[in-house]
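User: Teach me something about this protein's shape.
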Amino acid sequence: MFVAKIVLLCAAVALVSGNPQMLGAPRQLSGAELEQSKLTLQESLTKLAAGEGPSYRISKILSASHQVVAGSLDSYTVELIDSNNQTKVCDVKIWSRTWLENGIEVTFECPNEVTLVRKHSP
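Assistant: First, the predicted structure itself:
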């Protein structure tokens, strides 16, 4: 019984003192990870603009996070420039499930606009 208490205590200490990032929780991106994430966003914007749209360019990424889900979920708060050269701040989510046909789902949530969901191939 004493050994079980010691093991439980050690496990609790390891959980408390270890990395506070929970598995599966969103992780804020910076540095090289943020740059790679920007490329992912640009690739999706380019593919969508070549198809049914929308047509946006990145002005500035205000924040970005990555989360492992059934696939991966990249979430951005980003300044986008539309086809009329108007800048707006939108929340963009890219849900990647590369094993599916058209497994990249991009959701745009911009103020005073209907939420737009588009899919494209990986």
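Now, about its shape. Confidence is low (pLDDT under 50) at residues 7-19. The chain has two helices and six strands. If you'd like, I can walk through any region in more detail.
User: That's plenty for now, thanks!
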